[in-house]
Amino acid sequence: MKKRALFFLLAVMLAIPAMLGGCSRTRSHRGGQLTIGSDIPLSGDWGCRQWTNNTSDQLILDLTEGYSLIARTRTGEPVYDETVASIAETEETDGTKTFTVDLAQDLKWNDGTPVTAKDYVAKILLFSSRVIRELGAAGDYGLAFSGYDAFTDREDPTYPFQGVRLLGEYRFSVNVRQGFVPYYFEKTYLDISPLACDMWLPADVEISDEGSGAHFNRNFTPGNCQGRIEAARSQRLNRLSCGPYRLESCDLSAGEAVLTVNEHYKGDYQGQKPNIETIFYRYVPTESICGALETGGIDLTLRLTESGAVKDVMALAEKDGFGCTAYQRNGYNRLLFQCDAGPTQFVNVRKALAHLVDRASLAEASCGGTAAVVNGPYCTDSWMYKESADELNQTLDPYAYDPAAAVRLLVEDGWVFNETGGAYTEGIRYKRVPSTRAGTFRHNVKLADGTILMPLIIEWASAASGAVHNVLADYLSDNAEIQKAGMQIQQTEMPFSELRNWFCRDVSQGLHYGAKRYGIFNLAAALQTDYDRSYCYSADAEFLEEGFNENYISDDSLNTLSIRMTWAVEPGDREAYRQKWLDFIVRWNQVLPDLPLYANTCCDAYSSKLKNWDADSFWGAAQALLYAWVEEPRRAALPLF
Q1: Which residues, in sequence order, are CB contacts of 293 under 8 Å at separation 6+?
Q2: Does 15 have pLDDT greater than 50?
Q3: CB 3.0-4.6 Å disulfide test: which of 22, 166, 185, 417 passes with 430?
Q4: What's the first-to-final CA gap in the chain, in angstroms?
Q5: Residues 268-291: pLDDT tens digits?
Q6: pLDDT surpasses 70 at 5
Q7: How far apart are CA 67 and CA 35, in angstroms?
């Protein structure tokens, strides 16, 4: 159920210099200040990503937290951060894998105190505990480690976490449990950063390990820890951190935060330290972003996607003194098909609809030239796409706008009858279906001889507002070519919460939501940096119940390819992963569980005082800021008298 709840909140690098282009260490340009403007107000929740936080909070976290055991390369791939620790891997005979971590002994918090192994172990224990879950956190930080299930359910605070060992002041280990290895992205299990214990835990809470696993003492209780934990989530003054910047001040009512360089920061995985001395973070409404940039109220704005704002800043970038960086969002807007009932269970119907929607025109109408059509679940900025583009262009069906091709597909699939069972001539097409395919689709017609006819009526659940929603109706329910092809799209507008209930078939909100009524939902899809679609197309009851297979599609080949992509490839075998990713994308394009409409362009816009700006969906703002610097415009020399 966790995946369902998370749904709407919407690869290992080869160590060769050529793959690190664009993020090589820069010489020191220390000094200056930069003001970042965002149209998303800070909420002030800095709870280590275990509660809800927005993208503004996330950037503050990314700039102030540090020393994870893994880093991300310029292409988004995980590598061990050797400036933080040396890590030894041991494959155990029981099918588990142990990672032993020896920390560098010169890591420090921003107050100059040392970062030790206990800080990393505390992070795993706290955010895997029953106590933290009772305070509303996810509590799944140590999910991949042996003993997690027993540890996370225990009320006894002294119960040991079997797979997490505290081995010394600067040494600890984690044991990844059976079923979680081998895995192509297994390095991500080591995405562990230290916890500022003095800020998060009372002084009488201690951690020890007598040989059976690390554990808290008896003082780790909800009553003793709740106040400290809740205060740490939003602490602004004297906040302990170990990233490149420290939080100097934050005024949520004014929508502002100030960050200054952490003098104790050792550097990122390439030894890069921050150049920009002070960063001001400021809330600016969307409609004011471009004006604030032009008048000098802000120097940088990030990840604009609203088409009007993107076009405004792109126009501004044509003027002297400004620039912008555009890149594709790691995701796409789509028509999501639910493929286990009604006409959308038939692949030819899904393909026919793809040929009946002019996606290039739709992207232009929706985004005014700031979006691009894609033909699968990929981002064109990803390294897999870049290294497979020629093969994809030769292999993928682009589903070009072609009403005649749509009709051919429907005829081939048997949509050749009218409502009485006679030959189709006009109106809505019908198809003879067995009872196993007919299901409880409410538009079915049953003839006197028992024949079941399914009409080509597709019900569409759409959110009740939004500019994209209004444009999309012209291409679906009001599309004359769809109607001429013998298909009818019935649009039902509803609040987003209602749409979610139908999409998730959430019978806890009403038994009627379990009916397989809607065949189309227009939703955005977000893709992971670590591209893993395993079990997202499994027809097993367990994964359907958990909401993994949101398309309710049953295709053994697609499911197998989605799993083999990450679970049948050894970590580090980059080419094998790319090939299996390619095979998956090709099969996905053939069975079309979604109709991808377009991917938005994201845009960072900035004053020309900002130098060396290099960001996209895989190299985020926090990383780009570390390598950038500012050069204040030189003032004209005063005349000498």
Answers
A1: 37, 299, 301, 313, 316, 322, 605, 606, 607
A2: no
A3: 417
A4: 77
A5: 999 999 999 999 999 999 899 999
A6: no
A7: 25
Question: For 343-372, what is the mean pLDDT?
Answer: 95
Q: If phi over 0 gives left and psi between -120 and 50 gives alpha, with beta otherwise, what is residue 168?
A: left
Query: If residue 408 lies in a helix (H) or strand (E), which one and from where to where?
Result: helix 403-412
Phi, then psi, of 432 in degrees rounded to 5? -75, 130
Q: Which of 334, 602, 329 is nearest to 468 (CA)?
A: 334
Q: Burial letters for 577-611: b for 16+ Cβ neighbours within 10 Å, e otherwise?
A: bbbbbbebbbbbbebbbbbbbbbbbbbbbbbebbb
CA–CA separation, 416 and 423 (whole Å): 6
Residue-level pLDDT at 575: 97
Q: Are 453 and 421 in contact (CB under 8 A)?
A: yes
- The DSSP 8-state label assigned to residue 161 in this structure reads B
User: In the prediction, which pLDDT does 4 show?
Assistant: 43
Number of H helices, E strands in the chain: 21, 25
Q: Are 565 and 377 in contact (CB under 8 A)?
A: no
Q: Which amino acid is at 363?
A: A
Q: How many CA atoms lie within 13 A of 623 on its CB side?
A: 19
Whether residue 73 is predicted with pLDDT greater than 90 in this model: the reply is yes
- Mean pLDDT to the nearest integer, 540-549: 89
Non-local (6+) Cβ contacts of 604 within 8 A are 300, 301, 302, 303, 304, 324, 325, 613, 615, 621
Q: For residue 27, what pLDDT is reported?
A: 63
Of 354, 462, 457, the residue nearest 415 (C-alpha): 457
Would you say 512 and 500 are in contact if contact means Cβ atoms under 8 Å apart?
A: no
pLDDT over 90 percentage in the chain: 84
Q: Hey, what amino acid is at 522?
A: N
DSSP state of 319: S
pLDDT(12) > 70: no
Rg (CA), the chain: 27
The candidate with the shortest Cα–Cα distance to 16, out of 413, 383, 411, 499, is 383
- Is residue 305 predicted with pLDDT exceeding 90? no
